[in-house]
Each structure stands twice: as structure tokens, then as C-alpha cells.
């Protein structure tokens, strides 16, 4: 006798099987055995990332399940993008309070629509009863020599970000009643919060061009610091240069600043590249159809014992004190 | 400012780093970047499995955290064993109601003690607040030609199981008050339930010998059926030959039978091998220091349209009706 959760497994497995290429390469093995079998492309390595999403911490209980399916995979694909890896496959484990068919249809539709777009195959998983919790582990292929790491920023590098920052946090603030906006802007912010677009094409195009990269999930101020700490460098950032949408520009200036610098949930790429590579970066961005903006410069630490830090400045180069304390974002841990 | 959950991440990352070999092979990358980088051994593939454990469904709230750390990884290593894969690495994502230091110390000690024993490196993870939920994804290396799959059982094969079955379910029954036992037997059953030993060495030794294999997590009756369905074969099993511990033999006969056939949580291997390989199987078991027992035979389906099924019989070969309906095990989905 199959329980409802075994039936869910079968539903996802069927959908996954329908997506498989008719002649899968070699001896790859998907759902249905104790393990899946997977190999990176010849000469490459697997890039692997795992994320757990919990109701109330990473999304609201009333989120559209289609959007949740999209976002759960998108945030993982964003980690692959940040390594310059080509998506290959993912596993999905989730616990659900009950097997609600409409919810599962919406969720799986959002999930598989994005997976298909990136040729990313569901190769295994686990489903169980319990409070709503989603755990995806994603696999991409990348040549280790050109993987975009965090520990390879160089003094003198430009600092770039893709797209615009802050819209997702503006959307969260709307839902929390922290500020208000008109209907069009609400739609823009909500789209950013619920349906982030992983910058996979940009990550691939930046192989061999960018020195260091990561994806912005916790906000620029905190995430850029990860590059600085791992690379033992400092940074100077022009706060006014940080790109923001027209919708965000209609919110109060201090809200704009906090949303762009500490908003979280952006899933844009932040990367460093030598000054000599500016044209190559612009060409990569054009190829990937994603705008990129220079926002600052990597600096050497004055002394090896100095703590890596970000010096914020305005467009004229004057130092700026930026207070982000107490401004939380969605997944504050 | 780091939240308590970021601090937990750091705690696990430090412990993982301390375990890393001083000169990790090539360009592997562990915790601290957007993704880990991992490759199987030359000419091999990665075997990948993911399991999610939820409080109340897969373990009791009052479980010793050391035992939980052990078991969470053990059930995943058991999936690698069932493929004949050599453990390489794992990712750990978990949500916790609060960051309790004593609990985390016990949990991580149980986890890393087992990980060290199998040279299995923690390469990434995610920690968040929320109801207790553990999701481990494990990676092993296996030559695809000799991976132990489920769909390769052949008519005439012997059916084997490792170790003894049913003790974990006996332990669950004790905790639920379904039956009682003396103190020594209670310790035996509890050990089986909380600290299963993945049969990694046996899986490796069976490469090229066994035709098909899986690990027993949901009980022999249900799990063997997975091999039969995937291989389109039937099976005949001698119920009295299914190995059980001395402790289990002291419980009533009908409890023994249900625990061994539908107990779940055994994490022993069930595998098929040709009759001509009996000596080779015994030698592999000896090499791995794990007893193995022949319990039945794989048969051809009478017609291609027949449903694969298990014919239960007793030691004299007489057919036996075995009723397992309504006998649940710990993770009933």
C-alpha cells in the first residue's frame, strides 16, 4: 500500500522522467534507485550547493505555490551562476503538512518550468510529512580553472553588480506594511521578491574574465564582505552608483539606500574584474542580456592584520557613514 | 552582525576544515564559497542520494543528539553502500527551533565521528531557524559498470541479506509500548534503532559480484519489491531463513515475523547474485566482516504482464500467507 507521500514521489518522478533526454548520456541514472549517478562534463568538476527554505523565514505561508516552486530552484541556480557553472541536475527533499493536490500542481509547475528552461534534471529526492520545509541541492559543471570563486579578488579590480538591487526587499517591506507604493510598483517589487531570475548566462559569460564573484542573497553590504574576507582585500563603494529600478527610486531616499545595500533576496551577481577587462565585462553582459554596473574598487589592506571592510562614499568620492544596523531582510540567518 | 545560525554554520565549517586532508586533491573547494567543487574518481561517476529526517516521523523529540547525528548520516551512507559507492562527501542543511549549544555539540560529534570513519567530508550546508528538520545529501564514487543497481536482478539469482533484520522495529515497538523485553535486549534493540551501521565495506566488496542491490529502510517486503518491479522478475522467500538476532528470537513469533519482514530502519543490504557466485559472496562478506544469509530465489515472471510479487514460504518450501497490512514502521511514507 502506497502512502500519499509515496504517491507524491511518483508524481515528481514521472514529471522528471518526461523531461529526460531520450538517450541520456552513458550510464547516468535518475530517480528510482538508491542513488542517482552523475558526472561533470569531461575535464570539469561538479559545483554543488544546498539551500533549505522554511515557511515564515524565507517565504510567507500564503505564497503562490507556483512562485515558491520557482524561487526554491532559482536561489539554488543563482549559486551555480555565481560559480560560472552550467546547471545539470538537482535533488529535491521536502516535508509537507498534507498532500494538497492543487498546491503540489502549482509548486511542481513553477519548479519544472524553471528546471526545463535551464536543462536541469530532477535526479532524486525525498518527500515526507511535517512542517513545510524545502531542501534543494543543485549540481552544475564547471572547469575548475575558470570557476568564479570568492577568494580571488585583486587590489585594483572594479566591483560590478548585475541588474538592479533592492526591489525584493521593497516587496517584503510592502507585505510587512513598512511602506507603500502604487499598483505598478507593487507588481515590480513582488515579481522581484517571488520570481528572482538566476543569472546563469552571465556567470557562464564571465568565466575567464571575472576575478571573483558571488550572488547577492543577504544584501550587498554583507555579501561583498564575504569576497573581501576570503580574498584579504578592502573595498570602496559608491553608494549612489548602486543600480536601482525606477520603481525603487519612487520610495524615500533612505529606504532606497537600505534596500539596495542591505536588502537581501536580490540574486544578482556581484563580481570583481581587472580594469583592463571592462570591455570584456560589457561584452559578456551584452551576450547574457543582463545590464551590469560598476559600483566601486577593490583595494589592498593597509596592513596584513587589518580587517577587510567596505568604505562607502558618494558620487563625488566623499566618505559616507552608512548605518544598516537593525535593518533585517527575509532570511536573517 | 552574525546571527546565531551564522555562528552555527561557522562551527560546522571549522570542524569540517579540521577534517580536510592537508593537501586536498586538485582544485576541490569546500565550505565558504557559493558552491563546493567535487569530482568523482577518474573514470567513475558520483552516486548521489538525499534524505530528509523530520522530528516525530523519523525520530523522537527526546533522541540523544549524538545518536541523531550518527543516524542522519548513516541512513545516507547506507544508500551509497547499496550502490557499491565509496563515500566522498556530504552536504548538511538543517532547521532548528533554537541554537542549543549542548544539543549542537552532541549532534555534531555523532555526525563527524561517523563521517571521519568513512573519510566523508562536509562540503557545504545551510542552517536556519524552524521546526527541527535535517536534510543530508551524500556523494560517493563508483564505476558505472559495477554500480549495484535495482534493475539488474536475474531469474535464478539467490536473494541475500546482510546482518539481521527486525531489531530496529523491535526497538520502536518498545518505545511505543507495543511489547516489552529485558534490559539487555532493550539495549540491543535501541542500538539497532538509533545507531545503524551502514554496510559500506560490503557494498564495495560486492561490486562485480552482486547483480542487484538496495538497502532495507522500509522493510524487506516493501523494499525487495522495488528490485522485483525495476527488474521485472518475481521472488520466492523462505520466511524462516530471514536472519534475526537472539534478542528478537525472545519476542513472540508473530512479532519476530512482522519485525523482520516489514520492520523498516534496518539499513542492511538486500542483494541478488548468481548461484555460481555463492563462494564469491561469502568471501566478500568475510572481507567486509558482515554476515550474509541466503533467504530466497529470483524467478522469471510467468507472463510479461504479471505483476512482480514475493511468494513467501516456510523452511520446507510450503507456501505461507503473510499478512503485514497495518503494520507500520517509523517512516511510513
Q: What sequence of helices (H) and strands (E) makes up the elements of chain A?
A: HEEHEHEEEHHHEHEHHEHEE
Proportion in β-strands of chain A: 15-25%
Radius of gyration of chain A: 21 Å
CATH superfamily of the largest domain in chain A: PurM-like C-terminal domain
- CATH topology of the largest domain in chain A, by name, is Phosphoribosyl-aminoimidazole Synthetase, Chain A, domain 2
Coarse structural class of chain A: alpha+beta
Q: Order of strands across the widest beta sheet of chain A?
A: 7-9-6-10-8-11
**Mean pLDDT score of chain A:** 90
Shape of chain A: globular
Instruction: Tell me the major beta sheet of chain A.
Output: 6 strands, mixed
Count every helix of chain A, treating DSSP H or I runs of 4 or more residues as helices: 10
Using CB atoms under 8 Å apart, which protein chain pair has the greatest interface? A-B, 72 and 72 residues
| Architecture per CATH nomenclature, i.e. the level-2 architecture of the largest domain in chain A | Alpha-Beta Complex
The level-1 CATH class of the largest domain in chain A? Alpha Beta
Amino- and carboxy-terminal Cα gap of chain A:
41 Å
Low-pLDDT windows of residues of chain A? 22-26
In quaternary terms, these chains amount to homodimer
Count of individual domains of chain A: 2
Binding site for ATP (chains A, B): 125-126, 150, 217
Protein name (chains A, B): Thiamine-monophosphate kinase
EC number (chains A, B): 2.7.4.16
Keywords (chains A, B): ATP-binding, Kinase, Magnesium, Metal-binding, Nucleotide-binding, Thiamine biosynthesis, Transferase
Amino acid at each position: 500500500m502506497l502512502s500519499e507521500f509515496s504517491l507524491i514521489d511518483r508524481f515528481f518522478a514521472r514529471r522528471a522522467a518526461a523531461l529526460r533526454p531520450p538517450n541520456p548520456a552513458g550510464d547516468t541514472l535518475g530517480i528510482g534507485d538508491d542513488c542517482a549517478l552523475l558526472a561533470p562534463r569531461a575535464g570539469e568538476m561538479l559545483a554543488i550547493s544546498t539551500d533549505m527554505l522554511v515557511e515564515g523565514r524565507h517565504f510567507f505561508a500564503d505564497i503562490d505555490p507556483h512562485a515558491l516552486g520557482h524561487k526554491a530552484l532559482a536561489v539554488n541556480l543563482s549559486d551555480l551562476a555565481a560559480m560560472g557553472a552550467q546547471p545539470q541536475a538537482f535533488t529535491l527533499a521536502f516535508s509537507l503538512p498534507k498532500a494538497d493536490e492543487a498546491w503540489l500542481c502549482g509548486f511542481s509547475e513553477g519548479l519544472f518550468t524553471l528546471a526545463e528552461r535551464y536543462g536541469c534534471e530532477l535526479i532524486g529526492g525525498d518527500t515526507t510529512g511535517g512542517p513545510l520545509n524545502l531542501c534543494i541541492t543543485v549540481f552544475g559543471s564547471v572547469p575548475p580553472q575558470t570557476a568564479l570563486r570568492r577568494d580571488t579578488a585583486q587590489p585594483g579590480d572594479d566591483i560590478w553588480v548585475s541588474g538592479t538591487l533592492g526591489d525584493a526587499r521593497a516587496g517584503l517591506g510592502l507585505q510587512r506594511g513598512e511602506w507603500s507604493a502604487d499598483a505598478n510598483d507593487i507588481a515590480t517589487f513582488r515579481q522581484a521578491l517571488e520570481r528572482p531570475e538566476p543569472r546563469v548566462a552571465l556567470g557562464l559569460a564571465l568565466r575567464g574574465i571575472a576575478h571573483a564573484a558571488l550572488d547577492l542573497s543577504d544584501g550587498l553590504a554583507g555579501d561583498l564582505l564575504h569576497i573581501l574576507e576570503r580574498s584579504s582585500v578592502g573595498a570602496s563603494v559608491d553608494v549612489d552608483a548602486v543600480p536601482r529600478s525606477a520603481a525603487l527610486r519612487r520610495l524615500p531616499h533612505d529606504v532606497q539606500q537600505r534596500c539596495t545595500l542591505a536588502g537581501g533576496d536580490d540574486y544578482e551577481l556581484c563580481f570583481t574584474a581587472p580594469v583592463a577587462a571592462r570591455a570584456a565585462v560589457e561584452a559578456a553582459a551584452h551576450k547574457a542580456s543582463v545590464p551590469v554596473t560598476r559600483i566601486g574598487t577593490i583595494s589592498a589592506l593597509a596592513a596584513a592584520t587589518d580587517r577587510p571592510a567596505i568604505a562607502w562614499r558618494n558620487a563625488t568620492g566623499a566618505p559616507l557613514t552608512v548605518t544598516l544596523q537593525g535593518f533585517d531582510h527575509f532570511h536573517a540567518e
